[in-house]
Write a structure and sequence with these properties.
Length: 126
């Protein structure tokens, strides 16, 4: 089955860290740009980071810049989102999405996704 499988969410205290993983199953991520999105209760989905198929470009929303880092390991068919300095405003369901594209630039607020991950809950609370 062709899908993105997410892992790594959970409950963390303010100031803590988590790493989310987005692994492709049944296909290779080599030619896919990947974006991370999140949706908090009662709010619209927000694009927070993206990375191109080769890792040559990465972008971050202002809300996470300097705290989150996106990376990819094509050998492991996985994209990661390292989240540091978490605060309660980061509480949301996080999704990854993959778009088949060799575009050398990515956009955090736009993706024509071929696949979406199942979502993972991140809760920041003391």
């Amino acid at each position: 089955q062709l899908q993105l499988v997410q892992s790594g969410g959970g409950l963390v205290q303010p100031g803590g860290s988590l790493t989310l993983s987005c692994a492709a199953s049944g296909f290779t991520l080599d030619y896919y740009g990947v974006g991370w999105f999140r949706q908090a209760p009662g709010k619209e989905r927000e694009g927070i980071s993206c990375i191109t198929y080769d890792g040559g470009d990465a972008k971050y929303a202002d809300s996470v810049k300097g705290r989150f880092a996106i990376s990819r390991d094509n050998a492991k068919n996985t994209v990661y989102l390292q989240m540091n300095g978490l605060n309660p405003e980061d509480t949301a369901v996080y999704y990854c999405a993959a778009e088949l594209t060799l575009n050398p630039l990515c956009a955090i607020d736009f993706i024509e996704a071929n696949y979406w991950g199942q979502g993972t809950q991140v809760t920041v609370s003391s």
